[in-house]
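User: structure tokens for Bifunctional NAD(P)H-hydrate repair enzyme, please.
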Amino acid sequence: MKILNVNQIREMDAATIQNEPISSYNLMERASLAFVKWYEERFDTKKSISVFCGKGNNGGDGLAISRILTGKGYHVRVFIIEYSKDASKDFQQNLEKVETLIQIKSIFEPNAMPDFVDDHIIIDALLGSGLSRPVSGLLEEIIKKINEAPGTIISVDIASGLYVDKSNEKSDTIIKPDHTVTFQLPKLAFMMPQNAVFTGDWHVVDIGLDKKFIEDSATPYYFTDQSAGDKLVKSREKFSHKGTFGHAFILAGSYGKIGAAVLSSRACAHSGAGLLTVHVPECGYEIMQISLPEAMISVDSNRNNITSFPDLESFSAIGIGPGIGQEPLTVRALDQLLEQIKVPLIIDADALNILSKHPDLLDKLPAKTILSPHPKEFQRLAGESVNEFDRLELARNFAEKYNVIICLKGAYTAVILTNGDVHFNSTGNAGMATGGSGDVLTGILTSLLAQKYTPENAAIFGVYQHGLAGDKAAEKKTKTAMIASDIIENLGW
Ligand SMILES: NC(=O)C1=CN([C@@H]2O[C@H](COP(=O)(O)OP(=O)(O)OC[C@H]3O[C@@H](n4cnc5c(N)ncnc54)[C@H](OP(=O)(O)O)[C@@H]3O)[C@@H](O)[C@H]2O)[C@@H](O)CC1
Ligand SMILES: [K+]
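Assistant: Done. Predicted tokens:
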């Protein structure tokens, strides 16, 4: 699924009106019906609803939604916030239809706000994608009051006060919804952890906007939903043998962190690689043999750290980093590996920290190496950023500059390709914020590279499957109780 910017959203709206053709009024009606359909599936008529409308098209949606919900037997009160004399044409047209049906209260000052009781629904239709500046004055006061009210807040299209495709200031006043019901496509703002409280659970509803326009629109931003994820699966042919699926090689672990080697290796083995060799320091030998009899173990001459590696000739992909530490001899081994490697590579964890401390190694990374930093590791690697939009730009520039693929881990892990395209992942949950979860991802990615997934597809698909397995684990064990091994247990496609 594509993510478009605010200008493209406006053009998509206009293209639909022109090409379908459909009147803008009827398009608003369709959007409102889609919202109501979503609402009806979740809330019964017992809960009363207050709809807060601005005077642009988002407010117009609010009015149409109020009318449709009233027609379906819901108890709806409508408030229009009179922050401006002007109103959009479709707002005005909807107002005329609603006025005859429902009593509307115009609010000219914050004290005129109603008192709320518990278990009440607030629909936020103050401002949508047309936000052009921070909210102030009456609107700001109203938003503050809504945020303090008990009950459930549902934003129409986007929380009022939140920009679609750029960062807000920390001081901005923005609705904090429980849910956002957004039209047609997810918005870039929803991908940023800084906006989690300003999106709540967000849901995309299809309002039939111009498919051809969406197809033809150029954007660097994509959302890996289920259909995008499913398309990337390579099927296992009947006449294949273990050689078909490559020989993965993982370098992981140090004294006290052999668990990282176990987790990444098990994840690799469970993700379809034909053969797996794991290189560990001597202290990890028995642990590895017992934990994963399916793997071949290559043992370092050093007891506690990785300081060397075997001949790389037979391997089809290499993963390095989980638990390796940053000892000078390990740094040297990584340097030598980068000199010799001729197959796809994934670099994670301590290997990333080594790169941060030895930036000269960055120039040695083979083209399309996958780096999988969490935000802190990325900061060490690429420097500070003022907000998450800025960080994403930093990551895009970094990916282009070093010709690498970055999996920037987070709630919506961003897979950034060498051309600057960003694929945000849809799967995963907060239960995965637990030790070892990143090691599991390294194993999956190494496995996919060994199976000859392109580095781009390996990164997008690997991150997607990692999240999906995490979701299955959370379902079975809960987000609290699940651990990284549970992610491995739930791999499979
Ligand atoms: N796209 C689609 O496909 C569809 C879109 N639909 C709906 O339309 C919504 C977008 O509508 P919209 O463009 O009228 O914008 P919206 O946010 O309602 O209001 C803009 C008005 O507010 C004003 N204003 C801005 N910032 C302000 C501030 N801080 N404080 C005060 N005022 C401020 C701004 O003034 P201006 O910037 O011009 O000075 C303008 O007058 C979209 O979110 C969705 O709900 C669906 O109906 C159908 C399909
Ligand atoms: K809104």
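User: Anything notable?

Assistant: The longest helix spans residues 455-477.
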